[in-house]
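PT: before anyone asks, these are the final sequences, not the draft ones from last week. 816 residues across everything. Please model them as a single complex and drop the result in this thread when it's through.
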Amino acid sequence: MLNTLFDPYLRFAFWTGIGAVALAFLAAGLIVHLRFALVRRTRREQAFLAVWRPILVNALVSAPDTAPPALAAADRVFFLSLWVQLQESIRGTESTGLHHVAYRVGCDQFARALLQDGNVAEKLLAILTLGHLRDRSAWLPLSRLAREKEPIRSFCAMNALVKIDAESAAAELTALLLERNDWPIARIAALLQGVQAAFAGPLLRAAEHAEGRPLIRTLRFIEALRLQLPPPMLARLLSNTQPAEIIIGALRVTLVPGLLPQVRALLGHPDWRIRVQACKVLGRLGERADIVPLSKLLSDREWWVRYCAACALIGMPFVGRPQVEILRSAVTDPYARDILEQVLFEKAGS
Amino acid sequence: MTQQGFFEVMTWFIVVYFILLNGSYLMLNFLSTVSLYRLSQERILDSLPQIYSGMEPPVSILVPAYNEESNIAASILSMLQLSYPEFEIIVINDGSKDTTLAVLMKEFALVRTPEALRVRIVTKPIRGIYRSTRFPNLLVIDKENGGKADSLNAGINLSRFPLFCGVDADSVLQRDSLQRVVQPFLHDDEVVATGGTVRLANGCEISGGFLTKIGLPENLLALFQVVEYLRAFLFGRLGWSVIDAMLVISGAFGLFRKETVIKVGGYRTQTIGEDMELVVRMHRILRSEGIPYKVRFVPDPVCWTEAPEDLATLRNQRVRWQRGLSESLVSNFGLMFSRNGGTPGWVAFPFMVLFEWLGPVVELGGYLFMIFAAFFGGISWLACAVFLFLAISIGILLSLSGLLLEEMTFHLYPRPRQVAMLALIVIIENFGYRQVNTWWRLLGLVRWATQREGTWGVMKRKGIGS
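LR: through. Structure below.
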C-alpha cells in the first residue's frame, strides 16, 4: 500500500492536504477581511462618537432646544450603546433630556424592531433601552422575554418591566422572581429597593404560602428589602422541624427580641450554619443572659461558630473590654482563647 | 506476521491515530468558533457599566510565593488594585530562602496577628500569620516549605470567602480579571471552577503591575509560544468547556468554589501539575458521587505570564508539564469510561490519555516508523512525503484557526504587522519547533516513569515588570 500517487489512499491523503492548505488560505483571507472590517467599524464608531457624544452628554443636563442630526441606520446600534451607557451612569432619576433625544431620532421604534430581529447583543441593548424609556407598548414582548430560559436576557427583560410599571410587574412577576434561581438575588434586591412598596405585599403573601426553595428565596428578598415578617409567622419558620435552609433564612430576618427564646434554643442545633446565624441574632438583640451560652460556643467544634460567637460577645454594647479580658483569662480551651484573641485584634484594627 | 504485514498494520494504526487526533482538534475548533461567535456579539455590552455588577461573591486571592523577593511587592500592589467589589489577598510565603517575607513586612507594614487558623486541609506547620496595617484585605502566611500545592492549601485554610482564586506571584493580571472570570458563578449555582485565557507578556509593556501596551516578543521561541497559547486556550480549552469536559484550569489564574475543593481533599502535594490534578480529581469525585457541577472557561484574556526564551528553560517547562499531565491522569484513572463519567470520562479523559499523554510516543514513533518503513521498502518515499505534507498542512490550518478566533473576538494585537508576523510563525513552527516539543514531552514521560518527587519549578526570567 501507499506506494504511488495512483494509490487511492495516498491520493486521498494528498488531496486532504491540499484541502487543508486551501482552508488555511481561506482562514488567512478571513483574518484579513476581519481586520479591514474592524478598522472600518472603529472609524465609523469614532465618527459617530465625535458627533453624538457631545449631544447626548449635553442632553443629560437638559433637553436640547435644536433638533438632533439625522441618525444613519448603520449607527443605530452605536447610538443605543452610548445612550444606554449614559443612562446607566446616572444615579437616581432618569434623564428627560436623553429621553427627548431618543424619541426625536426614533429610538423607541428601532429598539422595538431590534427586540424582534436583532442579534444577542442588539436584543439586550433594545431591552435596556425600552426599559429606560418606560415604553409600555413593549410590555408584551418584554414579558415574553422575561420568561425565556436564558438568564441575562430574561433578567434584563424583567428589569425593564419593573421600570415600566412596578405595580403591574409585581403582580405579574413575583412568582417568577421566586422561581428563577438563576436571577441574582443581589441584583433583584437592588432593583426592588426603589419600588419596595409595590413588591412588599406580594412578597409577604408569598412567604405565607411558599415552601421549599421558593420560600428560601422569598426570605432572602425580605431580608434584602428589610421587610418585617409577622412574629407568629417567623416563630413558625424558626421551629426546629423546619429544614435548615429555612431556619437560616428566618434567623437572618429576625429583628424582634420577642423571638429570643426560640433563637437561644437553636444555639444547640446540630447544623453549624444555624448555630452561626443564632449567634449573629444574639449579637444584635441579645441580653446579658446570653453571655454564658455564647461563651460556651467559643469552644464549638466549628470554626465559624466560634468566630461568630466571639464577634457577638465582643460586639454586645454592654460587654466592655475588661469583661472580655476576664473572659479570655477564664477560658481554658485553647480554641476559645485563640478565637477571642483574633476577634479582639480585628476589632482593634478596624 | 510478514514484514509487509507488519508495515501495513503499523501504517493503518498511524493513519487512524492521525485521523482521530486531527478530527478531534477540528471538532474542538468548530465548537469554539460557534461559542466565540456568540461572545463576539455580546462584546458590545462590555462598555455598559451595570450589566453584570453588584452581584459578585467575595473572593480570596491566594498567592503562593517562593523566593520571589524581586517582584512580590509589585505583584501584590497590582493585585490590590483589581476592580472587584470585595476580595482579600492571602500571600503564602512557602519557606522562601531569600528575603520575600522581609520585603512583604516592609512594603505592606505587616504585623503579626493572632489568627485562629481553621485547619481543614493538613499542611506543613505555619510559622506566623501577618496582617497589613496599610491594606486591611492583605494577609501573609509564613510557613515551612512544602511546595506550591501545600501553600495553596494553607491559603484555603485561612481564606474567609466562598470562592478562591489561585494566582502565580509572577502573573500580570488584567484589572477586570476577577470580574470576568466570576461571571459563570453568577449565572449558574452548579459552577465549581472557572479559568480564563492566559497570554504571554513577552514583548508587552507593563507599568505599575498592569499591562499598558500589547506587543510581540522579538525572541523566536517566545513567538512560537504566543501561537501555541492562542491554540491551546482559544480552541483547546474553550472547545472542551462547551461540552462540559474541561480538564485543565491554568495554575496561573483559576477561580474555585472553596467548599468543593475542600470536599475533594484540596490540592495534592505530591504532584507537579497540581492545577490539572485538582480539576481532574474534582471531575472524578463529583461524578462518582453524582453531584451536579460545572467547570467553565472564560475566553477573555485575564492573565499574562512570562514565557521562557531559551531552549533549556523551555525544555524544563515542557518536561514538567508532561510529568504533571502523567501524574494527573494516572492518579485519576478511575474517571476513564466510568459509569457516571459523562463527557469528561468518556471523551476528554480518553482524549488526554491517547493524544496528550501517549501522543509523543505515537507521534515520534510515527515519524521514525515512516522513515524506517520507507528505508526498507515498506512504503514509498513519496508516501512519506505526502504524509508529512498532510501533517504540516493540517498543523498550519489548526494554528491559523487559533489566530482567526483571536481576530474574531479580542483583536489584542493592534497592528496588521503583528498579525502578519503571527501568521508567519504559524507556518514556521511546523518545521522543527513542534517536533522538538514532542521530543521534550517524550522526555517528560520518561522522567515521570522514574518517579522523582515534585518541587517548585525554577524558571529563568528576564523580568516583565517595571
